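ok so I'm stuck.
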Amino acid sequence: MENNEEMDKEVEKEDLTELHEKALKKYKTATDSWQTIFNNYRSDYKFANGDQWDSGVLKNRKINNRSALVYNKLPANIKFIVNNARSCTPEIKVHPIADGASKNTAKVLDGIIKSIQYKSNAKQAYVKALETAVIGGLGCFRVLVEDIDADNKREIVIKVVKDPTLLLIDP
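replied:
not stuck anymore, here's the structure
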């Protein structure tokens, strides 16, 4: 009996090791695939926030006591686009299209989605996703299922992602 339990544990360890190796390979593939895009995003983000001089040129100018002015016009343009979206945030709308779909079911689903968006303050997540997309071409938010109490009740929530380079998307 003890031999069987030891064998089960050994098989389980091998399965976990194999699973771990597979996960590491997928992680490496994802990081390699997104690295260039993330680097471009970070560069664009710095540029939009006023870091517009090449580091070598800036260092050379400082050594020679030359000015390195930045007249950054991007924040005003970014705010214009983001504020336009903030004033009329897009919403999810359910339409009864397929066979067996009804207007009543669509209305119920609309209500559920609106409730999730309201409780989650989803507008904030949508606007932040748009802002990061405008700045660097990447914008995202998270849709999660969270535990809300000890009775195993769960609810769907929409969360802000401040830095889209912290997420790895399946390539």
